[in-house]
Amino acid sequence: MDIFKKIIANKGPLGQYADQGYGYYSFPKLEGQISDKMIFKGKECIVWSLNNYLGLANHPEVREADTKGAADWGMGYPMGARMMSGQTEYHLELERQLAEFEGKESAYLLNYGYMGMVSIIDSMLDRHDVVVYDSEAHACILDGLRLHMGKRFVYPHNDMASFEKQLTRAKKLTDETGGGILVITEGVYGMSGDLGNLKGMLALKDQYNFRLLIDDAHGFGTMGNTGKGTSEHQQVMDKVDVYFGTFAKAMAGIGAFVASDKQIIKSLAFKMRSQIYAKSLPMPMVVGAMKRLELIKTRPELREKLWIIVKALQSGLKENGFDIGNTASPVTPVFLKGGVGEATQVIYDLRENYRVFCSGVIYPVVPKGIIMLRLIPTAVHTMEDVEYTINTFKIVKQKLVAGSYSMGGVPSVGDEF
């Protein structure tokens, strides 16, 4: 069979909607400066879909640092991979600062969080090792596990009884093979907003002799008294073995890092294929990340403003009868009942008639019959944004329950791919 014909025939769970929603439901274009309000299809909308948690994307000091970094170095420097010709004192200094912030001996920069996590998992394991991981693990974790030639055991999301059962299986197997056990969890789960049960896991660490890797993409900069992440929030920083954070969320940049013991980081630096065979993180992104980290450490009011908005939004939604699940982070899911057609109508109505832009999530990401609207509050949102959005959601929910969205098909709004 011609492989092109096979690709076209098998569009995948998300690609099946491409013809109906490209440019609107998928690959939408938000225009204007990154803020609480941006332009979508020529209309100004309140935007709840950007991981700009602390509002750093357009913070004047950040913009100045980014501009100066580009002017001083250009986007090309340094040329080559870190191992060959891409090493600079700035890269090393940012790593020192990140390690100190997270209370670890050492840290290593990663070009992108997704590729970095895949490579970390690949580099830490051999075929004798066993991985125990959560069923709602991010796609980058799952892709990393696909490279693992040994066993992996999954437990239902945050189910500690099942977690221990999988640890028992893992320990029995590694006792026979001489391998080790790696537990992987997220700090903040990016769809549901709830937290990995780090304390519960670590209570079993000595008994089962495992190491813990935490993907804290949404927790770094937002969680904990000083923004060090979910491990700080749960008061277990010293017990987390490998900490992974990204610059793409609270830092509003590009890149990521991994922090751990010095010898572990040294080993990863010589093994991670996604870094060994990729160009070094460009200098403007490095110096820009330093400024962002400085603001996380020295401007607690940014995080305080974020949490004022988070609490107002989440409490207001709950008080008005909305199901927001078990979120304990800024990530705010809103669960409604309806099918794919109703979901598209709801999102269309929100964007076109009420000028509220949020992401909609449908099956297979959530169960059939469920619509999840995912809101990301930030420090640049206002209380007026919160009040207007809650009132809009009340209207939309009433229309959904009344069946107003069930008669129409999927609006034909997509651009040509």
Task: Report what the structure shows.
43% of the residues are buried. The two termini are 25 Å apart. A hairpin with a 5-residue loop joins strand 1 (30-31) and strand 2. The chain has 2 domains: 13-53 and 300-401, Aspartate Aminotransferase, domain 1; 58-298, Aspartate Aminotransferase, domain 2, CATH 3.40.640. The model has no long low-confidence stretch (mean pLDDT 94). The longest helix has 20 residues, at 300-319. By secondary structure, it is of the alpha/beta class. The strands form 3 sheets. The protein has a 7-stranded mixed sheet. A 4-stranded mixed sheet has the order 1-2-3-12. Strands 11-14-13 form a 3-stranded antiparallel sheet, with helices on one face. 42% of the residues lie in helices and 16% in strands.
Please give a quick description of this structure:
The protein has 417 residues and is of the alpha/beta class.
What keyword list fits this structure?
alpha/beta; Aspartate Aminotransferase, domain 1; Aspartate Aminotransferase, domain 2; 2 domains; 7-stranded mixed sheet; 4-stranded mixed sheet
